[in-house]
Amino acid sequence: MGKGPTGRILFIDDDKAGREVALFNLRRAGHEVTPASDGQEGIAFFSPETFDVVITDVKMPGLSGIEVLRRIKKQGPEIPVLVITAFGNVETAVEAMKQGAYDFIGKPFHRDQLLLSVGKAIERRRLAEEVRDLRIRISGVAKEIIGASEAMHRVLEIADRVAPTDATVLISGESGTGKEVVARRIHVHSSRAEKPFVAINCAAIPGELLESELFGHTRGAFTGAVRDRAGRFRQAEGGTLFLDEIGEIPVSLQPKLLRALQEKSVDAVGSDAPTPVNVRVLAATNKDLKDRIRGGSFREDLYYRLNVIELRVPPLRERRDDIPLLVEHFVKEMAEGRGIAVPPRVMELIRSHPWPGNVRELKNACERMVILCRGNEVSIEDLPPVPGTASPEKSFNGGEHGVGDWPPLPPEGLSLVDLEKRVIEEALRLKRGNITQAAVYLRIPRHILVYRIEKYDLRRDV
Fold first, then answer.
1. Which of 109, 120, 365, 419 is 20 to 30 A removed from 155 (C-alpha atoms)?
2. In whole angstroms, what is the distance from residue 441 CA to residue 429 CA?
3. Averaged over 188-208, what is the pLDDT?
4. How many of the other CB atoms lie within 10 Å of CB of 14?
5. What is the pLDDT of residue 402?
6. pLDDT, tens digit, for every residue of 314-359?
């Protein structure tokens, strides 16, 4: 018999002698096999990412093979399950097939019969994966994440671990860090990948329209409602709904969102009855939601319902090792075959820049460099200027307001408190007393800046 494709197999059987024989034959054929002596142990071992095929006996103490089959198909619908039993009959075979079994083998089974059935199951799994990956690529949902830094490695590791579950994930991080790209990765690595990925920016839609946008409305529900509208929850049926800028959702709408998450149903505007929905929700924010809870603009119960798993995407300044990779990727993507290179001197200037706009700002800078590049190598002059600086090189070295131009520290020492007070006063002067803008400029939460102003008894109208 020719050698077929090999795979990772979970073999569940309480018959030790039969299990040992099957393990010998499967391993000899090149398969990686994990044995389990009963259904409970098999379920404990199982995860959709770990195995290509599951083989389970039907009659076992504790969990029956049919119950094991049900639980495995619930966790990993795409995993082929082969059911074996010495007590096989037509009724058992029919029940197994109804529950999603790939094949049914009666004991005692011949070695070639086992290997043939396993080989076909693995081939089917691989083919299904190829079709799935092709459909995802065609849909355009997946976006490549560039990064080899330890900070991004941790983010992607957690994202991939939570992806197969239906847990709600709250993705936090500054603007431009790539929160939606991470949300798309979670969707693509989940069992919902072939279903819709629907994104909505809660800050971009007026509060009075957001309810209809999320939950839908019926015809005649309000002036201008000339037809029924499904809403984003129902548009994402079976898939993933990504709520970007969740911190901007009006307080008046938050109880309805909380109810939709808890009850897994939505009440369309103007409808008398709720509509069940099967949707996984991912949310993102660049705000401090705990600060908003303290300020009364965000419900604490909604926060905890969204924050089952929290995932913080680090700013670019915390993952500088990724900057050269990102620059090479963006330049290659935008150069369209021109073969533009970034010399070490320019790359070092780019790497040392703080990038307050994060990956989005870096991508725009790369596009500028490609457009302005006169030959096959970008120059310092192609770098974008920073407001308030004389030249790109000066701005990317710290600029007239940057660290690179600070005077040397005095040998006699200085007062850190006085220095902090002076910096705050200068920021307030620069922003004409606007505390919110000054907080953004200093990259600290607004309430922290207010606390510092009150602590140092500073004037707000400096």
1. 365
2. 12
3. 90
4. 17
5. 42
6. 999 999 999 999 999 999 999 888 889 999 989 988 988 888 899 9
User: How does 405-442 read in b/e, with b if 16+ C-beta sit within 10 Å?
Assistant: eeeeeeeeeeeeeeeebeebbebbeebeeebeebbbbb
Q: How far apart are CA 175 and CA 416, in angstroms?
A: 30
**Strand, helix or coil at 297?**
coil
Q: What residue ranges define each of the domains in the chain, with the CATH number in brackets?
A: 8-136 (3.40.50.2300), 150-314 (3.40.50.300), 317-405 (1.10.8.60), 416-455 (1.10.10)
- pLDDT of 365-403, one tens digit each? 999 999 999 889 998 888 887 554 445 555 565 444 444
Q: One-letter amino acid identity for 454?
A: E
| Whether the Cβ atoms of residue 100 and residue 73 lie closer than 8 Å to each other | yes
E-strand ranges in 42-187 read 53-57, 81-85, 103-106, 169-172
Say yes or no to pLDDT of 94 above 90.
Answer: no
pLDDT band of residue 405 (cuts 50, 70, 90) is: very low
φ, ψ for residue 278, nearest 5 deg = -115, 90
Q: Is 221 exposed, middle or buried (0-12, 13-18, 19+ CB in 10 A)?
A: middle
Q: Any residues with CB less than 8 A from the CB of 129 and at least 6 apart, and which?
A: 78
Contact 248, 284 (CB under 8 A): no
- Contact, 14 vs 60, CB < 8 A? yes
Could you list the beta-strand ranges (E) of 197-308: 197-201, 240-244, 265-266, 275-276, 280-285
Q: How far apart are the first and last CA of the chain?
A: 86
- Residue 169: what are its φ and ψ, rounded to 5°? -120, 130
Helix-strand-coil split of the chain, %, nearest 5 = 50, 10, 40
> What are the pLDDT digits (tens) for 56-76?
988 888 888 888 998 998 888
- For the beta carbon of residue 249, count every other beta carbon within 10 angstroms: 25
As given in the structure block, the two tokens for residue 360 are: 């989005």
- Of 35-39, 249-253, 333-337, 385-389, the range with the lowest mean pLDDT is 385-389
CA distances to 245, 355, 441 from 316, rounded to whole Å, are 19, 7, 17
Residue type, 282: L
The token pair that represents 175 in the structure block = 């603007």
Evaluate whether 231 touches 274 at the Cβ level (below 8 Å). no
Could you give the angle at which helices 254-263 and 207-215 cross, rounded to 10 degrees? Answer: 10
Closest CA to 330 of 309, 355, 304: 355
Q: Are 280 and 141 in contact (CB under 8 A)?
A: no
Strands of 6-109, DSSP E: 8-12, 32-36, 53-57, 81-85, 103-106
Average pLDDT across the chain, whole number: 86
